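Recall the central idea of this unit: under ordinary conditions, the amino acid sequence of a chain determines the structure it adopts. In this exercise we apply that idea directly, starting from the sequence alone.
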Amino acid sequence: MPTLFARDPAPDLILHGGAIYTLWPELPRCAAIACKDGRVIALGDDAEVRALAGPTTELVDLGGRTVIPGINDAHNHLLELGLKLGRLALDECGSIAELVALVRDAADRTPPGQWIVGEGWNESLFAEGRLPNRHDLDAATTRHPVLLKRFFNMDVVNSRALELAGVTRYTPDPPGGRVERDATGEPGGILRASAKLLCRSLLPEPSDEERVAAIEAAGRAYLAVGITSVLEPGLAPPEIRAYMLARRAGRLPVRANLMPSWHGFRDDEGHEELDARAAGLGVLSGLGDEWLRLGGLKMAIDGGTTSHTAWMFQPFLGEAQVYDFNRLDPEELREFFARGHGLGWDIGIHAIGDRAHHEAAAAFADVLTAAPGPHRHNLIHGYFASEESLAWMVRHGLAVVIQPTFIYYEGDDLFRDVGPELAHRYKPARTYLDRGIRVVATSDIPSTVHYNPFVGLYSLVTRRTRRGTLIAPQEAISREEALYAYSVAGAWLTREEQLKGPLAPGFLADMAVLDRDYFCCPEEEIRAIQVELTVLGGRVVYRRG
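Accordingly, the structure predicted from this sequence is:
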């Protein structure tokens, strides 16, 4: 007999004739699934489940295709990506010349004086083998201020933008940032870490409607790759408001969990404002419904490896010292953790460098030793874990939120930045799991090239970059472990493990129909998997083609 949650009235939707991987231990695989009122109500073989159909039931013959639970991208800047979709896309630029050409084309259709903004460039892809500078952008236009965001923690701007920001040879480096200068001492156009705010603060603030439209556009793009839930970290009040407006207007395409910005994540928020944000509302992690919910507080210590702004024990290769690009005072970590933990918030902290990871784990351990209690605290990115930090994570139940897309798109740069020894320890998924540490897999778009979860799944299973380089192959995990990290684990992180994740009776009916069997296809095909159908709340919300 099929496993039933309810029999009457008839299901709204039945998928049958397929290979349905549920990630539910009681029935890991079946041929058919029935949905009613947004939930899974039955799983079993074709005949049993199809017998539940009524005159209004939509029947979908899978024709042998594979079904997996909906992807939960639990560290995803959906709103930021939606805004990026309306800007210059620079992710695939293979040269500075190509980047300049895109800016020149944009200048031809943009009124003089208006900002030209682009996102996603990566100097490691450039044929010129160097960073772009203001002179490059000046060759495209001096009639417009230009700001081009690297994929993470660095901008390049033209002379007009520097002029508007009042940045000259006499402008001091802001705390936690650096204005790169040429041989004469003049600003060269590269703004690193907190120095980005010198020009970013001049960009027009998006309107409510622009933010809602961005949420809708990005959410619809996610449905096409099987993403049904996201956790968006680091949101300020106007951005949280946009999600509320999108939900109210029926323009929220995917389920969203929101992490308010807290200490270290943004350069433009003061401590008093942030303390009031955590305490003043009288709420804590978990407020909301199955569509829109509050998650934890988002913090950040450092920057990133490829931008050379992470907090490391040793200098990056080619540098003589460890520079301070930290986004908060590490001496205050325990105070911040204790405050948020005491208020009942879960806390996720960006900690990329090996020292940042070590110090964050140590601070969590001290706070949780002094005040044990239920939590879902987590270290975000988890690049390089020391033995001590692993022990603290195990002892205190700290999770890790990793981005396997970084392996694929950035892995080759590791050897350039940190050398082979640290590269061999990069994003140690196998080690985390073997120690009993919960692993949540995500994209962190737009801090990477693409949100496609199948690229991330491929990277977790093969540990290969897009150039085919193996990165710490001993840290590969199984296909089932990888899919679990991309779905069920994210629901645990947001305290929704009784609501969504596996395809099980009573759980939300969120799933993706694939063009090939994720579990059986050759490893190299995982990254090429296409989604044929996406089902959200028991409704087909995307059909390929």
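The CA atoms of residues 10 and 53 lie 6 Å apart.
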